[in-house]
Amino acid sequence: MKKIISTFLCVVMLATFIPFFASAEGDGRNVVDSGTCAKDVTWVLYDDGELVFSGTGVIPPCYNVEQGYDRWSKYFPQVKVITIQDGIRGISKEAFATEREIAAASLYKITIPDSVTYIGEDIVAAKLMSAQNGERLSAICFAGSEEKWNSFFSKPGQKYYDGIVGRWEKYFNGEEPKPHCMIKYGRYSNNEYGNQVEEGPFAVGVMYYAGDMDVSFEWNVTGTTEILQEYKDGNGVVTGLELKPFKRGNAYVSVKMLDKDGNVLDSTTQKYTTKKIAPDDDFKTALNKIKAQIEKVINAEFSLLFFGLIAAYLGFVYIMDTIRLTINSWFK
Predict the structure, then answer these.
(1) Which helix (H) or strand (E) holds 223?
(2) What is the pLDDT of residues 32-56, one digit of tens each?
(3) Cα gap 202→180, rounded to integer Å
(4) Which sign, positive or negative, has the C-alpha torsion 186, 201, 180, 104?
(5) Within 10 Å of residue 24's Cβ, how many Cβ atoms?
(6) What is the model's pLDDT at position 285?
(7) Cβ atoms < 10 Å from Cβ of 290
(8) What is the pLDDT of residue 15?
(9) 197, β-bridge pairs
(10) Residue 148 contacts residue 120 (beta carbons within 8 Å)
(11) Which of 99, 205, 240, 314 is at a distance of 20 to 30 A from 158, taking alpha carbons?
(12) What is the pTM of this model?
């Protein structure tokens, strides 16, 4: 009986320490899964969303792992940060990209060491989003220089292309991204580009980098435009606006990015010039339009009168000259 009780107590004690060992392996984090995805390349996924690659080999495309190796891409929707440790020699084309771009909502940062000697094109999915729905930016942080990065993609006779576009920003020499935001011009009315806006409506949205923080936005619109509609994300955060100019002049759109405690992380203002008048102008603008139309009519009538008088004068001169020539011919 004593042996049974002792055995039971040992089992209970071991079960108590299992979570401790599991978390200790990940420095206070739990390991979701791990494996080997290529020769001399191992990966570990932690429960906080960090995927860590280590070794001395080349990271393969995420969807093309050779037989006998472990595929990590099945966890792609959980991945928030990809950390490549020093020693990895290369990163294959489309290493972290998928056709469905299923990592777009979660992956916000990739850290690449200076030890790499090769990086393929399109290592991430270049998903583009509509401006009024907002666009959360992601960062690729390379420990080496920008010149070294460019050398990976500069081939004789070919145009430089690394495939890092859309929501991805690049940082070099170990620089870390800071929270920031910018206003992106959305739909264009009457095929006008830049900040010159035709008769509304038009849309603007916020592009921002916030890491894994939950943020919100505070909008302010002044000048010659007004808000027609707000666009919200799945959490109810206003990420874009549809605007309508109501008279000629300048419109100013401002946005503040706030953390969950209401602290301002960044802010920006964009100026737009409204060129045409919307149908529902204010009274002063309407009077100015009527005045302009009257002046246009008066100017047109004056022009007709002026040119009519000139034509009449020329006609009179022509007739008198004809009469003079006729009379002179009688006395020859």
Answers:
(1) strand 216-223
(2) 999 999 999 999 999 999 999 999 9
(3) 24
(4) negative
(5) 12
(6) 57
(7) 10
(8) 43
(9) 274
(10) no
(11) 99
(12) 0.70
Which residues have CB under 8 Å from 85's CB, separation 6+? Answer: 52, 53, 54, 55, 113
Residue at 38: amino acid letter: A
> Which residue type occupies 7?
T
Q: Which CATH number fits domain 181-274: 3.30.450, 2.60.40, 1.10.3430, 1.10.3470?
A: 2.60.40
* C-alpha distance across the termini of the chain, in Å: 161
Give me the amino acid identity at 103. Answer: A
Strand 41-46 and strand 238-245: pairing? unpaired
Q: What is the pLDDT of residue 219?
A: 97
Q: Which residues pair with 81 in a beta bridge?
A: 50, 109
Question: Could you tell me if residue 41 is left (phi over 0), alpha (psi between -120 and 50 degrees) or otherwise beta?
Answer: beta
Count CB atoms within 10 A of the CB of residue 267: 15
Q: What angle do CA 85, 168, 268 make, to 5 degrees?
A: 125
Q: How many CA atoms lie within 13 A of 300 on its CB side?
A: 6
pLDDT score, position 329: 72
pLDDT value of residue 73: 84
What pLDDT does residue 49 have? 93
Residues of the chain predicted below pLDDT 70:
1-27, 98-105, 126-132, 157-159, 186-200, 275-291, 293, 297, 300-302, 331-332
For 238, left (φ over 0), alpha (ψ -120 to 50), or beta? beta
**Dihedral angle sign, alpha carbons of residues 100, 105, 107, 109:** positive
| pLDDT at residue 115, as a whole number | 94
Contact 56/87 with Cβ under 8 angstroms?
yes
φ/ψ of 107, rounded to 5, equals: -70, 120
Instruction: Provide the pLDDT for residue 264.
Output: 97
35 token code pair: 């494996």
Residues 174/244, Cβ–Cβ less than 8 Å:
no
Question: What's the pLDDT at 16?
Answer: 38
